[in-house]
Amino acid sequence: MKQFLLDLLVDIDTKENLKLNKELNKLVCTRVSNSYDIIDSVPIILPKNIDSKKLESPIHKKYNTKFNYTEHYKIDAEFNDYFEEESIITKKERERNRQSIISKVQAKSKLILDVGCGSAWVAKHFTKKGKKVISMDVAIKNPIEALKKIDNENHAALVADVFNLPIKTNTIDAIIASEVIEHLHDPSLFIANLLTTICEGGKIILLTPYNEKLIYHTCVHCNTPTPSNAHLHSFNEKNIENYLPKFGIKYTTSASNNKYFIKLRLYSLLHFLPFNIWFYLDKIANKIIFKPTTFIIEITKLTK
Q1: Domain tally, the chain
Q2: Which of 62, 102, 173, 177 is the most buried (most CB within 10 A)?
Q3: Could you give the CA distance from residue 257 to residue 262 in angstroms, rounded to a whole number?
């Protein structure tokens, strides 16, 4: 396990520093008896017990159903291979989204936390730039695969729950969470927790579908409505304010990736264009017909 990651880790109950017990290959908290496994140099720091009542989104409350998201995304990671080769259309669309995120990361950011790391594209890009990256996911499989795929001295991986973050406060320069917030039961708490770990002047970059119409299907297993793609929330310029703290931050939003660029498969035709030119064309397209599909929220933690 990388030393720079160990220096950041705290017990999720006491917030005391965690120590490495090399004989047991575990992280331990000396104040209490909590200990956490390490698998393939990846610490597994998850809460022992989760109150399902605290995890309810509006749809779960409406239909009186339970939501164990840690178990859900553990199964999801086993079922869906986030490291497999994508179709050319999907790949080009994702590349533009990633370029949009990359363009918003401050040059001064030395330590980046990738929340919901998926295929570890953040680590692949930024470790080459000399920046340290922590690939974090609630599913055990993804961070372990990420660390194997991106074997770099600046790359560490962590299995953790964003609602029980085991990271010291005011230590991370930038946080990237791409296509994560729409899946979570409590977006406000998600953002608040990220803000505790970010340094003053640091930035949180969230990417999510723009003003998505949530579609529900009847689950074949439980016969209750379940949202397509497990999307629990939809965001736009107006409603995002409901999830942000009133003080201590400044934020900006941007909408991009015109729907008709995707429908007409222009990504495959225009993939050779530099990002700045593509972004300009996309901006013109959205002025003509405002049909963006991607929404980015940039949140900067203000200096006290």
Answers
A1: 1
A2: 177
A3: 8
